[in-house]
Structure formats: C-alpha cells, structure tokens
Specification:
Layout: E1 4-5, E2 10-12, H1 14-17, H2 34-43, H3 49-52, H4 59-73, E3 76-78, E4 84-92, E5 99-111, E6 120-121, H5 128-141, E7 143-144, E8 148-152, H6 158-165, E9 170-179, E10 182-189, H7 192-202, E11 207-211, H8 213-229, E12 240-247, E13 254-256, E14 259-262, H9 267-271, H10 273-277, E15 281-286, H11 291-300, E16 305-311, E17 314-320, H12 335-345, H13 352-357, E18 361-364, H14 367-376, E19 381-384, H15 390-398, E20 409-411, E21 421-422, H16 423-432
Helix pairs in contact: 4-5, 5-8
Length: 436
C-alpha cells in the first residue's frame, strides 16, 4: 500500500569541518526554545539549527544559501549511493531512570498520499501557523532537513528481523551521546537486493504519522505546487517525504503525556472546581511521586483518571465515575479528550476555541515542573495525564478521528542533523532511473 525509496542522504563531514557531530546536531525545530536556539548557534557555526530554525530576518532564504554553500564547501556531503538508513536509539525511561529497549527506525523516502487513500493516516490536529512556516522553508531550500516520524504494524516482526539479520550494513555514525537524552547510531544499507526486500515488506503496510503532521501536510501542499508547474506522470522528488519508520510492536516505542497548565481563569470559577468535579469524579489525595503510577493503575482497571494540582504542594487524583458516553467517537473517549470536555470546557469555561487562541492553557511534559508551576504561582492549576498507548493512537487513526493537539510525545525525539535530504539531488536520481 505504501511506496518507500532509498535516497542519497546528505550528511555532515566531520573531518572536513574539524568538529564532532554532537556540536552540529540539534533537537527537532518544534521543541527548541529561544534559549536552546541561542545555545545551538553558539555551539558551532555549522550547527543544523541555522537550517531548521534560523533567527535571521529572512531565515528561509538564509537557510537556502547556507545549505547550498555547505554542500559546495564540503561541510555537508551527499552519499554516493542511494541507501536506506537504519537509525538506532538507546535511552533510559525518563520517569524511572531504568534502561529501555533499543528503538529501531528505518529512514527512507515515503511517497506522499492524501489521507483519504487510507495509506497514510494522521492522529492529531494541525494548526495553520506551523504549516505556513515549514512551507516557506521547503520552498526556499528545496530540501528536507528533518525527518518526520511514522509507525506501521509489523505483527510478525518481519521488518526488524530482516534488518537485524541482513549482514550487508555499513555503520556510518558510530554513536552520538548525550543529545535528547539518548545514544544515536546510524547504519546504511546500499545493496539493491536488500533494498528491494524492504520495499516488498513495507508494500502492504499503512503508515500512521506519529510526529510531523504539519510537515506532512506542508509537503502535500508543496507537491501540488510542483505538480502544477510540471504536469505529467514523471516521478518528482516532491512526491516523496523524508521519514523514519518504526513498528508499533517495537519494544523501544515510548509515548509520554503532555500535561496541561491553566491560567487566566476567574478565581471564583477555579474555587468552584472541586464541587463541580464531585458530580462526575471521585477525588483522592495523591502526590507528585505516585500520581503517574496511580493513573496507570486506574487505566488498567478500565477507568479514566487525572492528576489535579489546585493548591501549592497538593496533588489529587480524580477518577471518572462513569464509562464512555454512548455514541462518543474513539477520540472523544480518550483521557486527553475527556479532560478537555469535562474539566477545561464544562467546568472552567475554557472552550476549544479559547485553547486554540492561547492565553489559557500551556503545556509541559515535565510532571515535576507542572506541579511546581502552581507552587510558584506561574499557573493557577495543573492537570496531569497518564501515558498514552500506541494502541490508542492506532485506533484513533483507523477510526478516521484525530486527537487534540499535544496529545502525544514520542520519546526520545529524532535527532536533527544525522541525515538530510536534497530534493534537487533526488530529482536527478529519479530522472536517471537510479532507484525504482
């Protein structure tokens, strides 16, 4: 059902630069704070942040100039042969500090498909602003500097087993440590026979977008623009997007929640919240140290629960007394959706439009930070969510639903700067028939 292609990845030449990769790579653009951006700019003049999140007045044209300049000077170099790239990440569970199984990703080009085909499915809503930003960058640079992240079902483990057992792999990045909380390794598979097997194994899969909804939809818009300018059936580089694929069954797949922080609510509204919650929830005392495990325990019992911080140092768990409302959709039954409808909207009058407009709800993945934000007085209340499951994500996508924004956080993120994509190079490759 899906079409993947190898490509000539563009990578940093550490020897030519005289620097190691840890000074050149960066987190994904959408998790870089202004302070992070400054630190990355200071780290090295060729840090990838200057491409993915520039701070110049015309950051898009500047990224285009830098990218082409770095290719000419040898800072960046395209691999000679089209390849699939095997991406390995090893890390600790951020909640427990214990080692987590290695996560395996296949970096490739994925043929763009409209969601209506059912071949590629979303699970989260998108906003106009980020899509406009990424579209301007794509137009200016004709490159994809960061991979989106996709999931697929592999119940018989055929893709992982083939990759693990296939001997003709070349290590191209031994390891990058200490960035995004994990170790990153990259291998390259250039043998056409091995590539053909992977293409066949993936042909009947459906791809679920995990991270990168904005960039995927941006690429669809860009594809339409390029197709309009170049009508016909000739394959175009704009028909494909750079993606990293991981199986739902991968033991290293970890999804973390994003907690909600509330402010600018009338004090009397917030003061009435406990009595309003008593209509649908049972509240029990808890603590920052135990709340995550308590929410998980309730989920194992088939119940929906949230952590609530209304007063400094005081954490409660709110357990929903009833089951899903009859007729509700797959997405509406999710804890993150119920938090929005039953507490934010119904009890605090923070409607979906107000959430989208900003000013009332902010987000953090750090549970301790969520709790302390109330203690410091930065926010009036914090609402703590349990970990989403990959099955929830798959079920929502298959049902044609979408989750609210910031429902999932796949951990760790993909590291930016390991392998980039030059659409001009890929177009030449397609024109020459180097791949199929």
């Amino acid at each position: 059902m899906v079409n993947i292609l190898p490509f000539r990845g563009v990578r940093y030449d550490e020897a030519a630069i005289g620097a190691t990769l840890d000074s050149l790579v960066a987190p994904p653009y959408d998790v870089i704070s202004p302070a992070d951006q400054d630190a990355l700019y200071a780290k090295h003049p060729a840090n990838v942040v200057r491409l993915i999140l520039g701070r110049e007045e015309d950051k898009y044209s500047q990224a285009a100039v830098l990218f082409r300049e770095w290719l000419v000077t040898g800072t960046l170099k395209a691999d000679d042969t089209p390849a699939f790239y095997i991406y390995r990440q090893t890390f600790d569970d951020p909640a427990t500090g214990q080692g987590f199984p290695e996560r395996l990703g296949l970096i490739c080009l994925l043929k763009l498909e409209d969601y209506t085909t059912g071949k590629v499915l979303p699970h989260e809503k998108t906003l106009t602003g980020p899509k406009a930003d990424r579209l301007e960058l794509l137009r200016a640079t004709e490159a994809q500097f960061e991979s989106i992240y996709g999931l697929f079902s592999d119940p018989d483990d055929s893709v992982r087993m083939f990759i693990q057992e296939y001997g003709d792999r070349e290590s191209v990045i031994e390891r990058v440590d200490g960035v995004l909380g994990c170790t990153h390794k990259l291998e390259r598979l250039t043998d056409p026979d091995g590539q053909a097997v992977l293409q066949e194994l993936m042909a009947d899969k459906v791809v679920f977008i995990a991270d990168g909804h904005h960039r995927y939809e941006t690429s669809l818009t860009y594809q339409r623009e390029i197709r309009a300018a170049h009508p016909g059936s000739t394959p175009l580089a704009a028909d494909y997007i750079l993606i990293t694929l991981t199986a739902f069954e991968d033991e290293g797949l970890l999804v973390l929640p994003t907690h909600r922080l509330v402010k600018n609510v009338p004090p009397e509204t917030l003061a009435a919240l406990p009595s309003l919650l008593a209509e649908s929830f049972t509240l029990y005392p808890s603590s920052a140290e135990t709340i995550e495990a308590e929410i998980a325990a309730q989920a194992n019992l088939g119940k929906t629960a949230f952590g609530i911080v209304l007063l400094p140092g005081t954490v409660q768990i709110a357990v929903l007394n009833t089951g899903p409302v009859a007729g509700s959709s797959t997405a509406e039954r999710l804890p993150v959706s119920l938090l929005g409808t039953l507490i934010l909207d119904k009890s605090l009058n923070i409607t979906p439009d107000k959430v989208a407009a900003g000013g009332f709800v902010s987000y953090t993945r750090d549970l301790a930070e969520a709790v302390s934000s109330v203690s410091r007085g930065d926010t009036q209340a914090a609402f703590l969510l349990g970990r989403p499951t990959v099955n929830e994500i798959r079920d929502v996508s298959l049902a044609g639903d979408v989750m609210p924004q910031k429902s999932t956080f796949f951990y760790p993120k993909l590291l930016s700067g390991l392998v980039l994509r030059d659409l001009r190079l890929d177009q030449a490759m397609l024109d020459d028939g180097d791949v199929s």
